Amino acid sequence: MTNDNVVKVALIGNPNTGKTSLFNQLTGLKQKVGNYPGITVEKKQGFCKLNESVKAEITDLPGTYSINPTSLDETLVLDTLLNEEGDAFPDVIVVVVDIENIKRNLLLFTQLKDLKIPTILVINMIDQMNRKGIHINVQKLEKQLNTKIVLASARKKIGIGDLKEAILDYKNIDITPVGDISIKIDKEYFSKLKEAFPEFPLYKSWLLITQKKEFDFITEDEKKLVLKFRENLECIKRYQHKETIFRYQIINDVLKDTFNVDKSKATDLRGVLDRVLTHKIFGYVIFALILLFIFQGIFNWATYPMDLIDTAFANLSSWTKSVMPPGTFTNLIAEGVIPGIGGVIIFIPQIAILFTFISILEETGYMSRVVFLMDKIMRKFGMSGKSVIPLISGTACAIPAIMASRNIGSWKERLITILVVPFTTCSARLPVYAILIALIIPDKRIFGFLNLQGLTMMAMYLLGFTAAISSSILLHNVLKIKSKSLFVIEMPNYKLPSIKNILYEVVEKTKAFIFGAGKIILALSIVLWFLASNGSSSFKNAEEIVTNKVENSELHPQELQKKIASYKLENSYIGYMGKTIEPVIKPMGYDWKIGIALISSFAAREVFVGALATIYNVDSDGENTGTIKERMAAEINPDTGEKRFNFPTGMSLLIFYAFAMQCVGTLAIVKRETNSWKWPMLQLFGMGILAYVSAVIVFNIFS
Question: Out of 3.50.50.60, 3.40.50.300, 3.90.1150.10, 3.40.50.10420, which CATH number does the structure's domain 6-265 have?
């Protein structure tokens, strides 16, 4: 430890043990999320005050069932605990176990104890003890496991103070292993291992030779010794098997005397709920109804705050023009910056509602049932039940969803999942869908309670999921990659959702959307404003040219100003760019203004709305900017005299954005995860061609 006032803590546990809830309770909002150096796995770190002078730096490591990794996420846990020179190497490990799955969870604990790092065992969810008829002899269990045990309930805030005290006292924790694996496996073999690596704990040496990878933190001589020990693979596999059996024998002996479950005192509804929610028919019906409820809520509950935000930014833009002196800077703020920011902020209510629902489903334990339910179906499409997690995560953002595919052991299944995840409707598409659906779908009720706009939104999500599934079938048959897979999933207990955890999740993800998309949109808004506010001689002489053209007609001054503004926009730099690409996009039903927004949104899909907001504000007469929805609704196609955003054009845009790969960040992550430009380029051009052809067909069908 480099600083006596900071204790480095590694938070480790099996998936669904409540580890993240405990992390949230300890750190509160003092968290930061980033990536581990050189890899795209997300790292959560936070700080916790232990007393007046000492604080803990807590790293929430990915969930793992064993120290022997089967996925990239789990490999990170191993690397962190073996590299003593690494920044994340802990002073103390906190292992979180679920009181109901303590036998399986303790396998990881006994492995970690053998590394001779001070280790605290947190038995979580103790609020379930009485309901499950569970009794623990804590003192006896501490003695047999050679550790400090803390009984806790992260959701109920029980045991948090005890855990802080245990962390403070980590130097006095016994680091003796629970059992000596060398005696049970092969004493002579492990004696040679000890001689080869005298400075390492014996179990660390064993882990170095059992993993099929190179470790950068050991010397060249140590690497040669590792390779020498690895020569007898059959022996290593046999010894690993013996190790697992030995550890479970120890765990059984320990729990026999310290852990008791009296089923007669249990009052558990889990079995009943599981039979209903994972039923081969009703399970899917219930899931579909839940999705229907979510999308109805997104439209019904978000409409009022969205209208308030939209109006507020339109008024702010007008007010800015009225109070600031006329000039370039005022135009930049009123026509570029404010509409651009407004194009992001307006969708916060819908995005917050979506994230709230997803967090509730995860918190209650229902999401794991969905994964289990979908496994048989997903296997037919070349994926596994684990692929459902990235696909559902993709409704928030494709980037972390693709990272989440790292827990899929099979490379083929993982690659297929990575390639099809961008089809799922992410939060970046939500602003585009929301504004287009509001423009072309009437706000009507079906059967008196189903909102037609909400049904359309759900249909778009289902379309994205269908496209992902259809693509996976194609890829499964085309990709000739041999791979084996094993599907293992933890079925956590049903829980009442923690409001605190949901709040953290919604705030963090909404912030990520605002600041991630906001930076791009703001920068592009300024660029678009500049290109739309400057041009050639025709642009500069627009007032004179337009006035001469309408010299003999009796136009109201306001109408004249509108014609001048429109002429200037068409002859600006952005106008020339738009006119250049217009022949390509015209078959889709788009004009050059939509084309500019389309091109701009290749940086990020949500830029589409912000780009149109900027273009239409520049195109205004300077007096009445109106809301973005009003501006889009009022836009007229000069060739037909009809609304520009009519049903055919709106549907064409919806279909285009459902299929197009318009996210530079996602392409970068795919390249990084696959270590090749081949796959992201396949996504970009494959999805782009599908989007273009589909949009052209849809426009012509409805025209």
Answer: 3.40.50.300
